[in-house]
Amino acid sequence: MMSTNVVRVQRGTFLKEIARLLTEHRISAVPVVDDDDRPVGVVSEADLLRKQLGLTALLPAVRQESDHRSKTEATTAEGLMTSPAVVAYPDWTIVEAGWLMQARSVKRLPVVDDSGRLAGVISRSDLLQVFLRRDRAIQEEVLEGVLTRTLGLSPSAITVDVSDGHVMLSGLVERRSVIPAAVRLCRGVDGVVEVSQRLQYDVDDSTGGS
Length: 210
Description:
CBS-domain; Histidine-containing Protein, Chain: A; 3-stranded mixed β-sheet; alpha/beta
């Protein structure tokens, strides 16, 4: 669901150039990266507007190297950025990304890989597009992609019902340990809001099972 063609800037990028990029690409914020392409902060259109209007007192307090410099005097990304950057990870679900956006009041989240390098960006519009995915498409990916191809389950033994992104799994699996794995993988499917299950099993292979 993330966009991989990411507009980014360096610490030394001038604010006028950032404003141009935001306008040209019709985005609300841009990640600031270091020389290794690791996000160190974010500059948003709100940051630029506050500076322009002299309302930097409304900016959230953050710890950064340039704390001693007034944001009203900032001329580059380093002086105005909110740091550290609030980031997401590629294996996150849309629910996790959406929750973080809501909790931190941001419209865009840089996505970083295992080494901390910028891999993409998730926006609110990206999340909305995922939520608009049809239930039938979700059902097909869960049944054919997750349960059949990934977990090797028989499609005739599992029923997948989807309503407004809510997935219900029912049927019979051979081993009990498959159930939590199935639920976890289904939650990662684009468009899935929540997963419930009424699965039964033949063999209890869980710890302490008989």
